[in-house]
Specification:
Elements (H helix, E strand, L loop, with lengths): L23 H26 L3 H18 L8 E3 L4 H11 L13 H28 L1 H7 L2 H14 L1 H8 L3 H17 L10 H15 L6 H4 L19 H9 L2 H25 L11 H18 L4 E3 L1 H10 L4 H14 L3 H8 L3 H25 L7 H20 L4 E2 L11 E2 H18 L5
Antiparallel strand pairs: 1-2, 3-4
Length: about 450
């Protein structure tokens, strides 16, 4: 009978796998790094969509903890606010809470948040259903309905459709906005690979823009002075009884088709790094890449929490995944510690006030870069999946989505296609939603009626 030989871990290998619990000092310091990494982008989404910053931070932390528990503590992910939903959220709030974006001094718009919360919960339901479906039939079936040409094109639309909003904010002071943009780009390029510093280009760009604004007297410090040190975040309940709620559920939840492949890509990347570390430590592979369905169910659990509390729609963060790869720390207990820290930050009123004092032009400079990156990620998805752009089918689907989504958002009144559907879209169909529906239906035609390609 053959004898099993134990594999000894290689020397000088250090790192934490998902089921490891580091000492308390390492737990706190590594958790703080995770919070710092998610903070800039998560807070920026709250600023752009007029959500309460305290609630958004708290919901990010609590949503992360719940998602980790739903995933049976097997999938190390941190959840922050998603940029993918900004365009449709801004459109919805402009239509149904018209005062949200008329005054630049408005930091928080509860009427708009309540109606959008219903849509975020709708997104959670879609993510959970897709996750359960994948667990039952496999991801290949889903890819038939949502191939990379659809999801990649939608990501491009989401990013570019926001360009008008970014430039509008930047126009408050072009000098400050462009300097902020330049600084952010330089930090993102030249700090890459520099450990924690490389994870924080948005934070450093914002600080640079803030300092420049302060030099020119553009910062209103009264917002900070009048804020309390501790405060209860402005929680809101979803407006389930609002007659427009169903329209928001459809509009916002359809954006999940762009976040599903993003979340799946994050899972594959993390699986490679975790199993490599496990091999170096002489331990069994975790193979979390096989948990695609469970990962999406966890994504949905996060959005349930966010939607119920009044935080911005969430996603698992690639920035935090990169930080884990750099620090070789994939410990789920560390991520739960980070979630607890984010919850506590939500109660610090001065912190929210400092964020709210950031001039609009600084936010505009950051947005030019970030929204463009979203669009480019759509291109990257199409490239990485080796989509044949010489195929008439793929060209037709991608072209329809891009023109309807981008052109409709920028060229049509209020970004609405003039097709009124009672109950669902009584005011017209939002351009991004119309683009998603058109692309999915066109692709289904090609699935049902095969071509000779």
């Amino acid at each position: 009978m053959s004898k099993k030989i134990a594999v000894a871990p290689k020397r000088n290998v250090f790192g934490y796998l998902p089921d490891d619990t580091p000492p308390i000092g390492a737990m706190l310091s590594l958790g703080l790094q995770q919070v710092l990494t998610m903070f800039p982008a998560t807070v920026l989404v709250a600023i752009l969509t007029k959500f309460d910053i305290g609630v958004t931070l708290l919901a990010s932390g609590l949503g992360t903890i719940i998602a980790l528990l739903v995933a049976n503590r097997k999938i190390p992910m941190y959840y922050g606010s998603s940029f993918s939903y900004i365009a449709v959220v801004q459109t919805a709030m402009t239509l149904y809470a018209k005062d949200c974006f008329t005054d630049p001094a408005t930091f928080y718009c509860p009427d708009g948040v309540r109606i959008v919360q219903v849509g975020i919960i709708g997104t959670a339901v879609v993510e959970i259903l897709i996750g359960l479906l994948i667990m039952r039939v496999g991801k290949a079936r889903l890819d038939t309905v949502l191939p990379p040409i659809v999801t990649g094109s939608m990501a491009m639309v989401i990013g570019v459709a926001l360009s008008g909003a970014a430039l509008n904010m930047a126009s408050a002071n072009w000098g400050v906005a462009l300097l902020t943009l330049f600084a952010t780009v330089m930090f993102s390029v030249y700090l890459r690979g520099k450990g924690l510093l490389g994870m924080l280009p948005i934070l450093f760009g914002a600080i640079t823009g803030y300092v420049i604004s302060a030099i020119f007297g553009l910062v209103d410090y009264s917002v900070i002075a009048n804020a309390q040190w501790l405060r209860i975040p402005a929680f809101t309940l979803p407006a389930f009884t609002d007659p427009r709620a169903l329209e928001l559920v459809v509009s916002i939840s359809l954006i999940a088709i762009a976040t599903v492949p993003e979340s799946t890509a994050h899972l594959y990347q993390m699986s490679l790094y975790i199993d490599e570390l496990a091999d170096e430590l002489g331990r069994k592979p975790f193979n979390i890449k096989e948990l695609i369905g469970l990962n999406l169910v966890a994504d949905g659990a996060d959005d349930v929490i966010v939607g119920l509390l009044g935080g911005a729609a969430g996603t698992n963060y690639g920035e935090n995944n990169s930080l884990m790869a750099i620090t070789r720390n994939y410990s789920v207990p560390v991520l739960m510690t980070a979630g607890g820290m984010a919850v506590l930050l939500g109660f610090i009123g001065k912190l929210a006030a400092i964020v709210n004092s950031i001039p609009v032009a600084v936010t505009g400079g950051l947005a030019i870069y970030l929204f463009g990156v979203i669009g480019m990620q759509g291109v990257a998805l199409i490239q990485s999946e080796k989509v044949n752009l010489f195929s008439p089918k793929n060209l037709a689907v991608g072209a329809t989505i891009i023109v309807c989504g981008i052109g409709g958002n920028l060229g049509l009144p209020n970004g609405l296609f003039p097709f009124q559907i009672p109950v669902l879209f009584p005011s017209g169909i939002p351009a991004i939603v119309f683009a998603a529906i058109a692309g999915i239906l066109m692709n289904l035609v090609f699935v049902l009626f095969k071509t000779e390609e």
